[in-house]
Amino acid sequence: MGDFVFNLKHVLVVSLAMNMCLIWKISYDEETVANKWSSWEQKLGLCFNGEKHKDHDTILATTSSAAAAPFVRENTAVINLDHGDPTMYENFWKQKGKETTVVTSSWQHISYFSDIKNICWFLERGLMSAITRLHKVVGNAVTEGRHIVVGTGSSQLYQAALYALSPHNASEPINVVSAAPFYSSYPLMTDYLKSGLHKWAGDAKEFNKQEPYIELVTSPNNPDGSTRQDVVKRDKGILIHDLAYYWPQYTPILSPADYDIMLFTVSKSTGHAGSRIGWALVKDREIARKMTTFIEINTIGVSKDSQIRAAKILEAISDSCDHANEKDAETFFDYSYKLMAERWKEIREAVSKTELFSLPDFQQETCSFSGRTFGQLPAFAWLKCEGDVDDCEGFLRKHKILTRGGKHFGASMKYVRVSMLSREKEFKLLTQRLPAIVS
Asked: Which residue windows are transmembrane per the record (predicted)?
C-alpha cells in the first residue's frame, strides 16, 4: 500500500510538471514563434505551374491564408508572389451574388456529348455563344470563320496545339521556340512527356536551324508584359499566339487579334483559375479537329459544369458592358482596370524610394474598348535587382518575399517575376517592404 501511495505521489508531481511546461509553451513569446516560421518554411516545398523550385523552398501558406497564423507579425510574414493566382478578383465577384450563381440538378449534364455536329463535340453551346459575344464586345479577337475548341485551361490547349501542328511522320521532333523571357512552363510542358513529335529548342532569338519550327508568341508577354510579334520569321515556321492577357485591364486593345491559332483562358480574363476553362480560336478546320482529338484522348472532353459556370460569368461581363452607361453601373473591366492601375502606381512608388530595384516602362496607347490612354498594366511585375545583386530571387527570399527568378524564363537571374494578382493584404505588404530593404 505504501509503495502505491509513493508511486501515486510521483505521478502527480510529473503530471504537474508537464502541465506547467504546457502553460509556459502556450504563453511563450510570439516573437519566438514567428522566428521559427522561417525555419519551417524551408522544410516545405511547392510546385507552381508544374515547376519545382529546387533552390527555392516556397511555403504552403501565404499571408492571407488561415495557415499563416494570426500570431505572425507583418514584418515577419512570408509574402508568396511566386505564382499568378488571380485572387485579387474575389471582391468583385462576391458582390455579384445570385447574378453569377449556377445551380445544377443531379440529372443534368450526364452525357459526354454537347453538340455532335460541332468539331469540338464537348463544347457547350452556351459557352460558345458567350465566348463569341465577349470577344465582339471587347474587340480583342476575330471569331468569324473560326472554330472554337474548349480545353481544361489554356495549358491543355497549348499541348493540343503542339500535337495538332507537329508532323506525325517526321524523322525528328519539330522544334518549339519562344523569345526570352518566355513563359516559364513552356519548356516543361513541351518536353514533359518526352514526345517524339516535338521538343523545346529555347530562345527564338537564338534559333538559327534551317528546320521546321513552332514559335510561341505570348502578347502581352508573361513575364515582362511587353507586346510581342513573332521573331524567327521563316518559311517553315508555324505560330501559336497565347493571348491570355490581351484584355483591357492589362493592356490597351488596339485591334482584334487575327491569327491562325489564338489561346485564351478564364484564369486571367475573369480571374476564375479554379474553373480550369480555356478556349482556342482556330482558323483551320483540320487543326481544330486534331486539337479536339488530343483533348478527347487526354481527358475525354472538358467538364460541362465548369463550362456552364464560365458561360454564366462571361455573359455577366458582356451584360455589364452593355449597361455601362447606367447610373452607378461599374463593368468588370472598369473595376479590374482601376485596380491594376492603382497597384502599378503603388509598386512604382515603392520602387522609386530605393535604388535597389527597377521596373520596365511602357509606351502609352489608346484602348479602342475603353477609350482610355495608358501603358501596359501587366499581371506580373518584371522586377530587376540593380547593382551587385546577381540573384534577385535569392535576395528577396532573404527578406521573406517569394518570387520566380529569371532563369526559369530563359533570362538573367537579376530579374524576378512578381505576381500583381494577389489579395490586397499581400500586395500592401509587398509595397511596404520593398522600400524598407537596405541590403
From this structure: none
